[in-house]
Amino acid sequence: MIQSKDMRRPETIQWDLPISASDFEILKKGCKPRSMDDRWSVRPTYLRESHAYSISWTRSWTGDPHYTLIIVRNLSSRKGPVIESMIYESFTQSDIDITAEMAKQEVICLSRNMLGCEIKAFPEIDEDQVFSYPLDPAD
User: Fold this and answer.
1) Residue 124: which CATH number?
2) Which residue among 73, 88, 131, 135 is least enclosed by CB atoms within 10 Å?
3) Within a domain: residue 4?
């Protein structure tokens, strides 16, 4: 596996998106690429100082980072796990600006389709629109 790099233009957003305990367990397991066809690596890291988990999505071939979810388990309440924030690459290799909403849809789509998460608190996504960037930024 290729070593992960730093994001070129990271943006951080507060999210506070609740997820189920089963989705939390799936994300904590991550996903290692098994073949050259696997495009993503999902790597969980426990952040001891904040009692949170960092779930990093990188391209398997290049190690280019795209998303990092920070998930907290609200042990003191019955609220359950929450995606507290997200760090995302805001600029593609093709010089396209990625908005926070685009990044949210992308990482949720990947979580649902690749890992099998439900993430019911996030609305349904038109998957034909995800990862479809306008050729002209004015579009």
Assistant:
1) 3.30.310
2) 135
3) no
